[in-house]
């Protein structure tokens, strides 16, 4: 497998990156003409480029002060210790560790005792977590040193420069959320090449020509969805009468993983844009969210619990509830009808109006996808159920899923928005929720 090696010091810090996504005009045509060669046609020109494989980073003697017991019952990203190179916030980036490169020693130098996998420790080959085995040679408080290699995914861009020439711009590798290289003044991005990890050669799945500038916003309805389905909310926003909005959800609504939670979480972006749209509005934005949980979790909590549904949601008496539960994605259409029907009855009982946010796209294999392009239609039954439920019950639906499903058309593999390499969107991903919400108003 062809790779380009890059050796670094033991401590690898996460890099914070942002990018302004460029506009698309006439889409470029891309084709593969060799294992690592592509041809691009745009603006009457044709150019060929060689794409470099992802870099392989080598880490030597990374110290872990103590090694937790390996727990195979936990998710792969949480079974024990995490190699720092493949760590993505609270998780690890799947398939980035090169498992055959992993060596665990009792000391820094190569003469130190080498521990045996399957006897002294175990390693999750896909997620990269590792932990000691109870009957092995590693003590409970014994420091260990791991050496390993991992891959850095990357987004490269084909750019039309200010002189009208097509050029290849190499992106900066990042274990979880790489971004395309920035544009200079007068340049236009034509396409991205998505190097998601180690691979033997390029395939069509790596080619992302820009087909559109951004999500195609529909014409503003008259009356708007909010005017039809959220009459009390819209009246208070316009009049300046105080209004309480509750953002209710899971870890995506907790949202403290974005660099600037006070301004970048979806509900805070929504709040800022509501205030801009309705200058008289006196909005109180509340958040009630529970990471790693779903609507069932709230409903199952007993009275007095910090997350009891009655006390922490209904008793707040919000005027408007905006719910976001990607963790409900296990539900079938029938389960949506039953659960969300109960929620609707409860919300009506306290006089609250409701907006349902459809969930974002998460890592492809968690959605049953084997690609990140040609995925306009969300395959999850939960999303289909939400759309049917909202239509049948006259509930406002902010369809964030639709916007995520078209990111590939903008040259963006949706997984590159996930800061934890699974399901925690960056600020741009949060903006897509706010965009979907504002479409209603």
List keywords for this structure.
441 residues, alpha/beta, Rossmann fold, 3 domains, four-stranded mixed beta sheet, globular, disordered N terminus
Using the CA coordinates, give the radius of gyration. Answer: 24 Å
* CATH fold-level topology of the largest domain: Rossmann fold
Biggest sheet character:
5 strands, parallel
Assign the CATH architecture of the largest domain. 3-Layer(aba) Sandwich
- Mean pLDDT score: 95
Q: What is the number of domains?
A: 3
Total strand segments: 20
CATH H-tier superfamily of the largest domain: SGNH hydrolase
Q: Percent helix among the residues?
A: 10-25%
In short:
The chain has about 450 residues and is α/β, with parallel strands linked by helices. The chain has helices at about 225-230, 230-240, 250-255, 260-265, 265-275, 295-300, 310, 335-350, 380-395, 400-405, 425-440; strands at about 5, 30-35, 35-40, 45-50, 55-65, 85-90, 90, 95-105, 120-125, 130, 145-150, 155-160, 165-170, 190-195, 205-210, 240-250, 280-290, 320-325, 355, 395-400. It has a 5-stranded parallel beta sheet with strand order 17-16-18-19-20, sandwiched between helices. A 4-stranded mixed beta sheet has the order 1-5-11-8, with no helix packed on it. Strands 13-12-14-15 form a 4-stranded antiparallel beta sheet, with no helix packed on it.
Question: How would you characterize the overall build of this protein?
Answer:
This protein has 441 residues and is an alpha/beta fold. The protein folds into three domains: 108 residues, no CATH class; 98 residues, no CATH class; 214 residues, Rossmann fold. Helix content is 21%, strand content 25%. It has a five-stranded parallel sheet with strand order 17-16-18-19-20, with helices on both faces. Helix 5 packs across helix 11 and helix 8 packs across helix 9. The N terminus is likely disordered.
